Amino acid sequence: MLKMTETAGLLAAAFMTAALFGVAPAHAQETATRMPGLAIANDQPIQIESDKLEIKEAEKRAIFTGNVKVQQGDTTLQSGLMVVHYKNGGDGMTSGGGDIESIDVSKKVLLRTATQTASADKGTFNMVRETAVLEGEKVVLTQGDNIFIGCRLTVNMGSSEAKLESCGGRVRIQLDPKSRQSQ
Prior knowledge:
Layout: H1 2-21, E1 27-28, E2 30-34, E3 47-49, E4 52-56, E5 61-72, E6 75-86, E7 100-112, E8 117-126, E9 131-143, E10 146-156, E11 161-165, E12 171-174, H2 177-181
């Protein structure tokens, strides 16, 4: 299950890096930018905790419910519900060889890395399309005193592009000038 937290860990880090160093308007209906230099580190073990785990081999799903916590290194993903969908022909969860197609998280999603935090109502990580989407009434990303607010964040891991949408309102960004000096 390495791909799950690799993608989740890159979600916040990728957007934050792009927004801080890319050219992005502070008030717009959506903000898009490129994120060069994305790298995936898959050399650390993953720990998953939840109140309940239900494996549905016939449906190619594993359902984690209640206080779900996924930890890999400095990256933590928390939610109330996480559903892992396996590709047809995958070995499944019980054999440890399941090929993950997508992961859905919902019920207060919180993603933390060593330097960033992202929160949303729900999220989807599509391993086939290499996309990650966080959605909600208010999607908030922070890095230090820098804050990014929208309602839908989409990250394409293959092309290193990210887009923060406002869903009818305006995207809000607050940048701390001191954060750029320390980098």
